[in-house]
């Protein structure tokens, strides 16, 4: 079976600034992979390249064994901030992707409505985003993402703006949801614990120009209940060392 | 909390909101009234507010007859201005070089002194509705255009990126994101422009009209009746306030989510 997503030596320049310097990574179907890196390393640039927000780059991007350019938008993207439209009710926000795909608003609502319970949003269908808590807004944004039925989810620091307690709750919730649905996910984060807790594999990026410093498998059994098991802590410490003190010798 | 208490509270809150405004306006009117009565100044120079009000009531039919054309000129001019501003703002949003081509012209149009332009427009287009519509449009068009263009540009970049990732066309992104994003700016522009619009209409009438508050003021002044001039001023102020309140009401209906936002922040 071919890999779902494969990047080979992908590079990107903005003017005379190198942002990506030869990124090579892959994601298997049904796999949860994280990209971990310092702020401003160009993590989001990778997503912009994938979702068509940026033109022109070096290297190859393949999806299901074919060049990405030949596929029809295989990604559902969740941007850094929830990007909920303040003027749309929660149900119409979550149905946005379906509407853009050409579904009537009524049909789109009919498709998202049954999922509100599972996403902890029951009863908030007709509210506006301003009436939701931070965690609920993120769950609504994730619902908007997964309901598009794309082959792969791209999550850009989905919990970065939440307070620590809410973030931990959301990480546990996402892990439960992933266990149930087994989406193929590529997650961008700078939270080491989040990456270790959620992922099957983690790519650690260098500072700009970004390249892959290390690829780390997280062999912890699922379902994972505890964010801070001793095994997880050992992996976290290892990753932190790579991030904070990136010795060339550690590039394996 | 018991019901009567909360009702009292609501009245108290309402007074807290409008009280200061009533107090400042009341003080001004009172000072004016006292000065007009006690200084012995002639009412043909400075009539007391009580006299202005009495004259306004006495002349209500004439005032009404002259207010209707002003209202129609204001609304017609403003509607034209809005329509043109909207169409141009969309064109500019889709084709940015247009902005650099057109904005200098519009900025120059804003430097034209109304005193000079109003009589010329009347000279060219006569005493009918056309020159009034044109002058109202002249003073309101640019603020509305700037508000709309800025409003489109205020669109959250994450929302644009999201729609882009969903495969939405440029047109779709405009309708789903840029247009609704411009609403707060649109209404801010609307509130400013609507006050200009009334002034613009009155100015146009002042320069030449069969009927209207502007020509009424001119005639009253020529007949040495400052009380009637001020009565017309009172009517135009009330008209502006009413239009302003209407924009606030429309905004509340069109943007119900905005009040939620405000409620959360405060």
From TrEMBL, chain A:
It comes from Mesorhizobium escarrei. The lineage of its organism: Bacteria, Pseudomonadati, Pseudomonadota, Alphaproteobacteria, Hyphomicrobiales. The keyword Nucleotide-binding applies. The keyword Lyase does not apply. Belongs to the ABC transporter superfamily. Pfam families: ABC_tran (PF00005). Residues 5-232 form the ABC transporter domain. Gene3D superfamilies: P-loop containing nucleotide triphosphate hydrolases (3.40.50.300). Keywords: ATP-binding, Nucleotide-binding, Transport. InterPro entries: AAA+_ATPase, ABC_transporter-like_ATP-bd, ABC_transporter-like_CS, ABC_transporter_ATP-bind, P-loop_NTPase. PROSITE patterns: ABC_TRANSPORTER_1 (PS00211), ABC_TRANSPORTER_2 (PS50893). This is Aliphatic sulfonates import ATP-binding protein SsuB. GO terms for molecular function: ATP binding. Signal peptide: none annotated.
From TrEMBL, chain B:
Residues 71-247 form the ABC transmembrane type-1 domain. This is Permease protein of ABC transporter. The keyword Transport applies. Keywords: Cell membrane, Membrane, Transmembrane, Transmembrane helix, Transport. It comes from Mesorhizobium escarrei. It is found in: Cell membrane. Its main location: membrane. It is a multi-pass membrane protein. Signal peptide: none annotated. It comes from the Bacteria. The chain crosses the membrane at residues 12-32, 71-95, 102-127, 133-152, 185-208, 228-250.
């Amino acid at each position: 079976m071919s890999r779902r997503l494969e990047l080979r030596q992908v590079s990107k320049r903005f003017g005379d600034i190198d942002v990506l310097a030869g990124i090579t990574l892959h994601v298997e179907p049904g796999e949860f992979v994280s990209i971990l890196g310092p702020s401003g390393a160009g993590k989001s640039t990778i997503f912009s390249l994938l979702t068509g927000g940026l033109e022109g780059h070096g290297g190859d991007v393949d999806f299901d064994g074919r060049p990405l350019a030949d596929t029809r938008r295989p990604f559902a993207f969740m941007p850094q901030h929830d990007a909920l439209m303040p003027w749309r009710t929660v149900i119409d926000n979550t149905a946005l992707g379906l509407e853009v795909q050409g579904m009537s608003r009524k049909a789109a609502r009919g498709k998202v409505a049954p999922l509100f319970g599972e996403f902890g949003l029951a009863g908030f269908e007709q509210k506006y985003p301003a009436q939701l808590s931070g965690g609920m807004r993120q769950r609504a944004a994730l619902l908007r993402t997964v309901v598009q039925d794309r082959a792969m989810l791209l999550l850009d620091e989905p919990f970065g703006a939440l307070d620590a307690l809410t973030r931990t709750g959301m990480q546990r919730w996402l892990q439960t949801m992933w266990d149930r649905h087994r989406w193929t996910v590529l997650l961008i984060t700078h939270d080491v614990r989040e990456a270790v807790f959620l992922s099957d594999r983690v790519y650690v990026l260098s500072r700009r120009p970004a390249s892959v410093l290390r690829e780390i498998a997280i062999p912890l059994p699922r379902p994972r209940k505890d964010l801070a098991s001793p095994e997880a802590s050992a992996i976290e410490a290892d990753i932190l060392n790579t991030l904070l003190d990136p010795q060339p010798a550690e590039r394996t | 909390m018991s019901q009567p208490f909360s009702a009292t509270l609501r009245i108290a809150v309402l007074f807290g909101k409008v009280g200061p405004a009533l107090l400042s306006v009341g003080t001004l009117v009172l000072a004016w009234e006292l000065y007009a009565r006690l200084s012995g100044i002639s009412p043909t120079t400075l009539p007391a507010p009580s006299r202005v009000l009495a004259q306004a009531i006495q002349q209500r039919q004439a005032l009404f007859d002259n207010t209707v054309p002003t209202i129609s000129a204001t609304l017609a001019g403003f509607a034209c201005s809005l329509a043109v501003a909207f169409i141009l703002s969309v064109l500019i949003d889709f084709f940015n070089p247009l902005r650099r081509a057109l904005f200098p012209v519009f900025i120059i149009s804003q430097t034209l002194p109304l005193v000079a332009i109003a009589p010329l427009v009347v000279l060219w287009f006569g005493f009918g509705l056309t020159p009034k519509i044109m002058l109202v449009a002249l003073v309101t068009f640019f603020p509305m255009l700037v508000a709309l263009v800025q409003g489109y540009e205020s669109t959250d970049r994450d929302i644009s990126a999201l729609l882009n990732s969903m495969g939405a066309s440029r047109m779709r992104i405009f309708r789903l994101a840029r247009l609704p994003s411009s609403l707060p700016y649109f209404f801010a522009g609307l509130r400013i422009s609507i006050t200009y619009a009334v002034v613009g209409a009155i100015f146009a009438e002042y320069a030449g009209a069969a009927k209207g508050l502007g020509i009424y003021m001119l005639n009253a002044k020529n007949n040495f009746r400052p009380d009637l001039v001020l009565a017309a001023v009172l009517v135009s102020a009330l008209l502006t306030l009413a239009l302003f309140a209407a924009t606030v009401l429309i905004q509340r209906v069109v943007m119900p989510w905005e009040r939620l936002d405000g409620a959360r922040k405060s």
